[in-house]
Write a structure and sequence with these properties.
single chain, 112 residues, alpha+beta, 4 strands
Length: 112
């Protein structure tokens, strides 16, 4: 069970940016294929995002799964709302739904 301190920390991380990706590794050096795919999708769409490396903090790594009720990492949050993991991101990207979410929520693009 997630404790209140961890829940608060994750809540702060989730809202600390328009787009937050809980991932294994960093945007520059993803440590798993699923995280790398998520980064590629966001980079392809030129979305400015903040990565949270769950490998550097085991408490966050386990806590995020309970926080979102989602068993896998990476996890994408847009304006504080959980969107999904890698497979959902990929499907939404392919159908254009992910791009619609970013447009509707007026997400900032990365600087060129």
């Amino acid at each position: 069970m997630i404790d209140e301190v961890t829940k608060d920390r994750i809540g702060q991380e989730v809202t600390n940016g328009d787009v937050v990706l809980f991932m294994k590794g960093s945007a520059v050096f993803p440590q798993c294929g699923f995280s790398a795919t998520a980064v590629q999708i966001l980079s392809h769409l030129n979305i400015k995002f903040r990565g949270v490396d769950v490998l550097s903090d085991p408490v966050i790594r386990e806590g995020i799964k309970e926080y979102s009720q989602w068993p896998t990492i990476p996890q994408l949050y847009v304006k504080g709302e959980f969107v999904g993991g890698c497979d959902i991101m990929r499907e939404m990207f392919e159908t254009g739904e992910l791009q619609e979410i970013f447009a509707e929520k007026q997400v900032a693009l990365a600087s060129a």
